[in-house]
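## retry 2 of 3
previous attempt timed out at serialization; input unchanged, resubmitting
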Amino acid sequence: MFATRTIPASPAPAPLSVHDEWLPATVPWKGGRIPTEQFLDLDLPAALFMAHQETWAAAHCRYAVQPTPERPDGAVVATTASKRWNREPVRVLDLNA
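## retry succeeded, writing output
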């Protein structure tokens, strides 16, 4: 259906950066402040704006794995860097295992 191609592994892989900082509870928005989770839910440009912050990926994963009516048990973070999630309130699937 779609063309595919195999991308070879890098001969010199670099580890992903890890930041132990949490996102702030609120962010500036239209002259005031709103909860960060509400900001991420607003629209794609808002989420992309947050992507420029160093901790956006972790914040997005924490938010995305939360239970929902469709997934009452929540979701799982699948990662090759499982130690990065040791102190996070998420379930992890270690892809290295």
